[in-house]
């Protein structure tokens, strides 16, 4: 699988309260409506301008704070197809995997990628190509990759249960 | 080589000897969810399974927006109650009972040596009782409903040893803020954090809870401490089943050992807009405040009420400040009332609110206006956390919050 899109680059310790404000967590259940509020308290331009296949690049500890799953769902529904960071909060990482949204840990790539540039992520070969060059990233552990490859935890579980 | 607590627990539950980095699938003892149960039940229903794997594994507490602020929150509660009835979930606590983590503790469901997961990031709280407690997502909770199972990466462990005695006016909230300021919001990312040392051993249950509760603010998977005598006494006659205390082996391999001496610690304040933006109170003293939020799963227990009432007794809250008070549970409220704390706090001009999470998350009950400053005893001060990104939130101990409420600005309790 290959993803080619524009980069939305942010800094360190981006928390889930600014990705998807808490005041919406129990009132918005429609994923498309979640997308309208993605990154609302961090970058008001994001939801208006994000395009299908775009990629978020963050610093360290991306998605820290509340473990609300909507913080992963809202950016996916907004069109984001991969999140690259120096490190992730464990709950944000899990929520992305569980919703079939590729998460890539690579400090080298984050330092190399410029905000707004078009980059290409090759999930099969584990490479990111940006203006600075091609950077390799380590694959997800096999147990986790299985969830991701099935499209997320719900389809993965249905496959195991035989209810798909 | 011995094992850490986290390695021991995950070895026991997975049935094999595990090492950090390994991924295991286990069945937790307890899976908690709150107002998000409505959304979780919808995900569960997509899984094509009729019955819960074990209804007794699930604890459901309505606390995040109680009573409901509008028809959408109300519908969440209604869906949750219907789901509870349909599936015969006995551990259900409706809106009058309190904040999920406190309700679980009071009901003897948080037990040493068990695995407790919650669809709430502050589920690290359970480590105060020697449990493996951690937050999980909504989809994961729904899958546990169906299969009983969840995967975990076995974490490395950081041991944080605390030495010394708290100086006057300084307590466990100041300690955890100090640690957050030092090691930062990713200082324990993916790690188990074990709090140890004589200071931890001698702290009260309510003070101890504050540390694992906020371990997640260091990025930790779990916060843990060996249950002390007061904790075991508390569980005597309360624990809903037998348990076995699990401790790290003396020769366990800790990734890192950090030591803090608190003998000279001063009150700490987390400044806008991150929990690790921590300063000694002397640097922010005098900052004008508009609202005090005394509540949350971090700091709204009986001993916090005792501290706040002692400061407010015979005083009036500053005319420019509103102080909102949210007991962590119904039991705490009743006891605080019996002991006269509620009377004292209300006489001082504070508003006694219902038990629950209050404005922590910005749903209702105290959302600040643009440009306002809130001093809060909760655990997060991210931009917009209390519902308005144009406001500033500072975090402090309950003691600092009470002194500051009287003065109208952030006030060092040691000078008053």
SSE map:
The complex is a heterodimer of chains A (164) and B (416).
Chain A: E1 2-9, H1 16-19, H2 31-36, H3 44-49, E2 55-58, H4 70-77, E3 82-85, H5 90-98, E4 103-105, H6 107-112, E5 118-122, E6 127-130, E7 133-136, H7 142-149, H8 153-161
Parallel strand pairs in A: 1-2, 2-3, 3-4
Antiparallel strand pairs in A: 1-5, 5-6, 6-7
Helix pairs in contact in A: 7-8
Chain B: H1 5-14, E1 23-26, E2 30-33, H2 37-46, E3 58-61, H3 71-87, E4 91-93, H4 100-106, E5 115-118, E6 132-135, H5 138-147, E7 150-153, E8 157-163, H6 172-183, E9 192-196, H7 198-202, H8 205-213, E10 222-224, H9 229-235, E11 256-261, E12 268-270, E13 278-280, H10 281-284, E14 291-294, H11 302-312, E15 322-325, H12 330-338, H13 341-347, E16 351-352, E17 373-376, E18 392-395, H14 398-407
Parallel strand pairs in B: 2-3, 2-5, 3-4, 5-6, 8-9, 8-11, 9-10, 14-15, 14-17, 15-16, 17-18
Antiparallel strand pairs in B: 1-7, 12-13
Helix pairs in contact in B: 2-3, 2-5, 6-8, 11-13, 11-14
